[in-house]
Every structure is written in structure tokens, then in C-alpha cells.
Amino acid sequence: MAQKEISGIIASPGIRIGKAYIYKGVNIVIPKYKISKEEINFEKTRLQNAVNKTKQEIMAIQQQVANSLSSDMADIFSSHLMVLEDPAIITKAIDSINSEMRNVEWILNDISLELIKSLDSIDDVYLRERIIDISDIHKRLIKNLQKIEHESLADLKEDVIIFAEDLTPSDTAVMNRDHALAFVTNKGGRTSHTAILARALEIPAIVGTIKGTSSIKNGDSVIVDGVRGKVLINPSNEEVISYISHQQDLLLLERELSKLTHLPAKTINDVEIGILGNIELPEEMAVIKDHGADSIGLFRSEFLFLDKSLPDEETQLEGYRKVVEYFSPQPVTIRTIDVGGDKIFGANEDYRERNPFLGCRAIRFSIANENLFVTQLRAILRSSVYGNVKIMFPMITTLDEIFIAKDIIEQVKYELQQEGLPFAENVPIGIMIEVPSAALNIDVLGKYVDFFSIGTNDLVQYTLAVDRIGEKVAYLYNPLDPAILRLLKSVTRQAAITGKDLSICGEIAGEPRYTMVLLGLGFRNLSMSSAYMYQVKRVIRSVTIEECEALVEKLMSIESASEMTSYHETFITTKFPFLFSC
Ligand code: PEP
Ligand code: MG
After folding, report:
1. In ligand 1, which atom is closest to the CA atom of 362?
2. Is 193 a catalytic residue?
3. CATH number for the segment(s) 4-25+156-256
């Protein structure tokens, strides 16, 4: 049995060991034949029955999701029901049966191909995301027309790790959670509905592996490492033993560390460190609070935009209000949408920009789509009356973008005032520092904003010119590169001179191995997901600022990234053997 290792994007964390099961979904063959005049009514009845059955199935899934997760998650399926009720599909199908006298499968296939083609050509990432909804519905309709027994992940009878080309949201939602240990898909990115559901269901998942299904056979043994973004196929006995103990250690550690939840995040010498939360969806807010964050340093609002094509102001307001009220009076920093880059990954490869990370992303996208931006700002500002809201702009490159964005905010405030809609007057406006130009210019930008949050995920990518999702250059993507430490040191120094609040919200803020470095560099507010919040707090409570500064000084005296990394690794694993032993 050949041993292999593949890597992908962590959609949902965790480690699982089990047998592979390749899920093919429905394999549709579309029958194509002409019908006689006498058969027209029969064909229309077949269509109606299939539509009814499909609706019932989707409503059942929706109910299941609402019961086990939340009504927001169940809403994902409302768009499926809308597709089924869309006259552009059903009435058109009936008309075509009457006039063209072709069988219903053939007609439905043409209609959905046409719809997919038209969505495909729209230069709008949200609308293009609807393609997966349309093909999901199309497959269900054809299956119900032909009475094909759909291979369903609800019917899993034994524990498996699912491998698939891609999974639809309904595949994921109905997955038998007693037996679905984890899943691995060839396609997809962090922002797909499927990834969102996986996190909410706490099913470890690796997506975007490209070659996952072609590397595996049914029954192969597999380790899904949702900590490092790897899948080990036919691992050695030693690897299995080491991962079993890794899993157990993680569980024990988690249990032990959870006792820290209500203890303050203070260093030995009493320096208080802010632990803030990063969330993507309102559903995550309870978990993040339970782990000990009492405010939100980064609400990645673009994830709200994935449920519906373009959520209206009221829908957005509802999403923001929930989080803002929940954390009130503590602040919630809502970042305006950051689409582009890897966030169109999986939607439609043809429409990716040539250099998507350098393209029309984040604030550039918002400025270029002002209507959308205005709707979002109206919803955010209106949510400010329910608690303590801060607005943050992603990927600021140059001062002019701040001026433009702030002008739009002023215009939005004026309109809200005219309409008599209340909002808090002094909502702080901040920016992400994630582009080197902003990091180098932070003293100037600071004159015009109220706070900064450092996005190292992008700052590392742009400073080192290394794609943050590129497998082939992953070896270069290293936060412990001398250039990064120098840049971060200069950022904390300059930010302190401006007197504006500073936090850091890139992934390194939530990785305990970097906590000492960040404290030593001068960061006092760390914004992170819940995954390693306890561990980060554990490190904070075991160190003094002086020893963190000494570590940074030592690291900055090292010239090469590899030497710096290896010195740091030895230092940190020796100091915290229990945290980094597996
Ligand atoms: C970052 O770039 O560090 C960041 C927090 O933003 P995102 O990961 O959403 O790009
Ligand atoms: Mg970023």
C-alpha cells in the first residue's frame, strides 16, 4: 500500500483517523427523447411531482439543519427553495414541454445549463456562487424524475472519512454525523457554504486538495490532520500511533486549559493582554465568548454575504445586530467585505483575475461597487445603536482610499439622518494594516483613523511576495522571516507614536508558538479564533514582557529565516513542552 501525503486548505479543524470512502454523489445521465401530443400532460405531471418531491426533501433538510444548528444555517436552503419556485425555471419548463415536445429531463437540463452559463458570465462573485445551488437543485430534480436512488451521506453505516470532488451544502448538512469522521474535497475554499457548515457542525475538513480523490481508494486508511492542513494516506503504524496520542493529548490539553477561561490574560508581571475574537458568522459568537474573548476584534463580514446573493440592508442589519447586542457593551469590530483573492476560489476558476490577490479585492472592491458598499455601511451604522460598533476597512494601500471610504461614510450618515434612522454618532473607523505600503506609512495613515489591526496573513504574503495559499511556495511563507519581524517592530513603534489603538488579527495572533514574539514586539491586543485561545492565554500567564522582549532581540540578531525559525522552535518547545509536544 503506497503511502502518500496531500495538503489542502483547513476548512474545519481537528484530527481524525479512519477509512476512506469516495462519495460520487448522483451520476446523472440525461435521457433525451421527443414526446407525442398525448404525452404532454404526462410529462407535465412528472415535472410537478418531481418539483414537489424535491421541495419536500429540501424542506426536510432545512428543518433538520434548523433543529440541529440554527435558523440562519437553515436559511442557506431558502435559496434552493427559491430556485424551485422561480418562474424562469418552472414556467419555462412547462412552456417548453408544450411547444417543443421534448421530455422533461432534456428541457430541465437545457434550462439549468443556460442559467449556469448566464451566471457564469456575470462579473459578480456572489451571483456566481449561486451556480452550485442551481446544480444541486438540478441534480435532485433529475434524480426524482428518474427515481434514481441518490447515494446519500445520510445513509452512512460505518465510520468513514469522506473524499469527494466537491460537496454541496445539502450533502454536508445531511451527513450522518455519527459516522462522518471528516471530509476531504478536491475543490472548494474557506468561504464555500460547505466549509461554513463543516465548521458549524464541527466536522474536520480539508478542502482544495485538487488531487484528493485520485490519490485514494475506498477503504484506504487515512489520517486527516486539520491542524496542519494535511491528509496522510495509508500511514505507517508509527504515524497512526503518534496521531492517536496527538488526538488524546489535544483532548486532555483542551480540558485542562479550559479552566483558564475566566482567569485574566495577564503576564507574570501583571501586564494585561486583550484577547479578542475573530468570527465569520454570528453562529460562532457563543463559542468565542465561552473560550474567553469578551469582544470581537475581527468580524469577517464577507461570510454573511455568502448565504444570499446580495443580502439587503435589513438582512445584514439583523446579522450585525445579533453579534453587537450579544457582546454589548464590549466592542465588535466589523470589517467591511473582503472578497477577491482566495475568496472566489472554488466559485469559478475562469473568472479569477490573473493575479487575484493583487486585484480588485477588499476595499478596492467596495469602492468599485459603491451601491453594495453603501448598503453595507448603512446596515453597520444602524447596528451601532445596539451596542458598541467599530468599522474596519480591509487592505488599505494608500491614504486616498481612507478619504474615499470616509466620505462615503459621511454621505451614508447624512442619508440615515434624513431618513430618521438612528445610529451612534462616533463609531470609530479603523483600518487593517496588511499591505506593506500601509505598514510603512502607518504614522501618516494614523492621523486619519481611530485604530489599526495588523493582518499578518496578508502582510506576510505581500511582503515576501508569496501566495498565502500556494503549495509550491509554502516554504517561503514564514512569519519568522527577518523582514517580517523588522516590519512588525516598526509598525508597533510607529503605531505607539500615533497613540491609536493597535491589535493584531492574522492567524499568528491565535498561534501559541508566536505569542511570546508578539508580546516582545509590543502587541497588547491579540484577536483570534477560538481554536487555540486557551493555549495563547496559558503562554501569556507564564511569561514576563522582559523575557518576550529578550527573545525578540535575540531573534532579530539572526540573519536568516531558517536559522531564526529553528532557534525559535527550539526555544518555544523547550519552554512549553506540554503545549507543543505533538
Ligand atoms: C489577515 O490578512 O491577516 C486577515 C486577518 O485577513 P484575512 O485572513 O481575512 O485576509
Ligand atoms: Mg487579510
Report:
1. 10
2. yes
3. 3.50.30.10
